[in-house]
Design brief:
The chain is of the alpha/beta class. The chain contains 14 helices and ten strands. The protein is globular. The N and C termini lie far apart (43 Å). The structure holds iron/sulfur cluster (2 copies).
Amino acid sequence: MKYKQLGSTGLRVSVMSIGGIPIQRVDQSVANKIVRAALELGVNFIDTARGYTDSEEKFGHALKGVRDRFILATKTPARDAAGARRDLETSLRAMQTDYFELYQLHNVSTMEELEQVLAPGGALEAVQKAQQEGLVQHIGVTGHNDQVLLRAVETGHFATVQAPVNAVERQFIPVLAAAKERGMGTIAMKPLAGGSFTRPQLALRQLLAEPLLDVIIPGIDSVEQMQQNADLASNYRPLSQEEQDLLQAEVDALGKGFCRRCEYCLPCPQGIRIPQIFIFEGYATRYNLAEWAVGRYASLNVDASACVECGICERRCPYQLPIREMLKRAHGNLKQ
Ligand code: SF4
Ligand code: SF4
């Protein structure tokens, strides 16, 4: 395995690591096997979140006896201090640990949210206090909006930044560059663009060549995936021209009809979680996880059928996506 320093944190992370969303879909015995395989392969960084249902708990069980061999990162979606403190204490219990190497403010998506977390009584205040108490070693920020993340980096309050970086979403490269200038650690989430690539290994190899990135965290739900990903880093080969062309062809094919999950379209007056629905559709149609995606879609309080076609979302979407048509298609693919 190849390792990098996570910015100036002093943490030495495996460049290919673990994203904690898909662990929700597997049972505890598979989670245990994934963690054991990671250990054997030299993978030492696990990123999860309070919002990923039982992901923290599964990792907590799987890490029994080996917690000290890993660098653990989790996140709170809370914007206020009290909520962040509650989340932190819940996450510590769930992951059966006394501290986190990295604790992140999750999906800070708008300038208003950034102001909220930074304000007196905001989430950052609580996490800084926890840092003084030794519950948190370093504080990070995550998000899907490049301008908000750039501003968050510029505040100087964060040791790391986590952004979706992949062959399609190149708009975050300036965020990574700004973070690196400040000695921050950089973490690439969604390296496979929500499962959009038919040749995921090419997409991961492209990111391994990105000097602005410290660690890549593809979601892992099997030992085989863990092994394949680790092998890409351990036996790294740059993309040949032919492979670059293949990857570019996929990027071109995704074209304009591809939701980047930037969330500019929100809020929908009907309460439709537009990007979430497109993520579920992607899992159903591209990831062979139809049953899981249909179940998650069915659990939404408001699904795509609630759209009254007001068009507000389309006026906000920076990619000019035909969201109304796409929602109809998604509903057709996901409704039980
Ligand atoms: S067009 Fe539909 S999804 Fe878009 S904002 Fe209006 S109700 Fe919401
Ligand atoms: S539909 Fe458009 S605005 Fe909404 S998340 Fe996707 S890309 Fe962003």
